[in-house]
Amino acid sequence: MNAVILAVLVMVALSLARVSVVFALVVGALVGGIAGGLTLEQTLDAFNEGVGGGAQVALAYATLGAFAVAISRSGLPDMLAQRLIAMLGQEADAARRARVKTLLLVAILLVAISSQNLIPVHIAFIPILIPPLLKVMNQLDLDRRAIACALTFGLTAPYMLLPVGFGAIFLNDILLANINSAGAPFGLEITRGMLPLAMAVPVSGMAVGLAVAVFISYRRPRGYQSLEVASATAQGGHSVPRPSALGLVMSGLAILAALGLQLYSGSMILGGLVGIAILSLSGIFKWREADDLFTSGMRMMALIGFIMISAAGFAEVMKSTGEIDSLVQGAFALFGDNRGLAAIAMLLVGLFITLGIGSSFSTIPIIAAIFVPLAVQFGFSPLATTVLVGTAAALGDAGSPASDSTLGPTSGLNVDGQHDHIMGSVVPTFLHYNLPMIAFGWTAAMIL
User: How far apart are CA 50 and CA 312, in angstroms?
Assistant: First the structure.
């Protein structure tokens, strides 16, 4: 068996068996390296060399986490949650149930989208916002599977399309860097401007899936018991910050400055540091507390950071074995000149890998090393290659049991024990997002 295929199978099998993804990546790299003819020492050297390539992404995540903690100290996320709850509570008993239901879905969707790009706090807003809203949802007989789909869309689609916040990490630091690295020997190079254009098509597929979920699949009323629940903030004994006018203004300024610098420089690290500095100058936290901010931020983002570092090491081992070339040649012999079959095979393999890892960010270093040479062999354009790699990596993030995009919504919707993780979050998001993304991604790869 090809060493790359064997390594991927070992890694995915261990991940699906609920073994730590970091451990699974290390074991898969060792198995693939040794099966590919490398000694143990050579395998470890290649892995360590690749690990260095993931350091920038890990630092970007730590900075983003620190910025999220600083924003939360301003009281802005809590204020937004309270205003939304109060606004909806006033109309919850009114006859205009359809209007309230639509307003609730749109508000949750917009907050989820903002959590990836505008106020990059990732899933940290869910324990604050969702549990207090369950009472309103129960009064409306709103199917929580629709809420799970709205949350997951907001947690995934923005970073795939918009190059700010988490999108700056996904598009610029990971997708762009890994495609250009894998494509350099073949003369393939893409630019930052190509990324949103390429990813707009699969994101459109997700938008279609969201519309189907909200207006067709989960439109009918669904009853839930009215149980008293407390938000994670209250459960943790954490007092809600009292936002001041100056703090809110400076928070807005910090967010705008961070976004502007990300768009200008393409660096989340620089944008996050400037945002943190502005919040410190406003008095939201003292500069000597910066170490505590970064510690809290790293704690929030540590797992995904280590997964991405390990994935970079895994990809470097696969390159060092030289087995990627034989895999490409074997695939070329298998599919002949049928680009359509090759494209669908790459998308399905990406789905398989991402379902096991649970993170599209961590999947790119692995599949880019395999798919870019394969795409060049089949004559796909740079834009089509970007679509294939980006879509294949994002596939499965929405439907993986181990993904933050499904675990986050479940953590908020299941505080009263009435929302099943698999049937309430994983299966609905898999059906409504992964299947349309395969169709739209394949179509884009064939026509671009």
Answer: 5
- Describe the crossing of helices 435-447 and 382-394 by its angle, rounded to 10 degrees: 170
CA 263 distance to own-chain centroid: 19
Residue 211: phi and psi, rounded to 5, are -65, -40
Q: Work out the widest C-alpha separation in the chain, in whole angstroms.
A: 72
pLDDT value of position 86? 66
CA–CA dist 67, 76 (Å, integer):
13
Asked whether 377 and 332 are in contact (CB, 8 A), the reply is yes
115 falls within a domain: yes
| pLDDT the model gives residue 146 | 92
Q: Tell me the per-residue pLDDT of 225-247, one tens digit each, with 9 for 90 and over.
A: 776 554 444 444 444 455 567 66
Residue 212, pLDDT > 90, answer: yes
Tally of domains in the chain: 1
How far apart CA 308 and CA 66 sit, in angstroms, is 18
- The tokens describing 245, both together, are 């006018």
Residue among 238, 236, 239, 301 at smallest CA distance from 272: 301
pLDDT at 133: 76
pTM score > 0.85 for this model? no
Encoded amino acid at 276, one letter: I
Task: Examine residue 168 and state whether it is found in any structural domain, yes or no.
Answer: yes
Question: Environment class of residue 178 by beta-carbon count within 10 Å: exposed (0-12), middle (13-18) or buried (19+)?
Answer: buried
Q: For residue 334, with 0-12 CB atoms within 10 Å meaning exposed, 13-18 middle and 19 or more buried, which class applies?
A: exposed
Q: Determine contact, residues 157/207, Cβ cutoff 8 Å.
A: yes
How long, in residues, is the chain? 448
Instruction: Please determine, for residue 383, whether its predicted confidence score (pLDDT) is greater than 50.
Output: yes
CA nearest 374: which of 441, 323, 444? 323
Enclosing domain of residue 334: 3-220+240-447
Block residue for tokens 């994101």? 203
Q: Mind listing the pLDDT tens digit for each residue in 45-56?
A: 888 887 776 666
Give the type of residue at 91. E
Residue 228 lies in a domain: no
Write out the two tokens for 282: 């406003």
Question: 191: which DSSP letter?
Answer: -
Asked if residue 31 belongs to a domain, the reply is yes
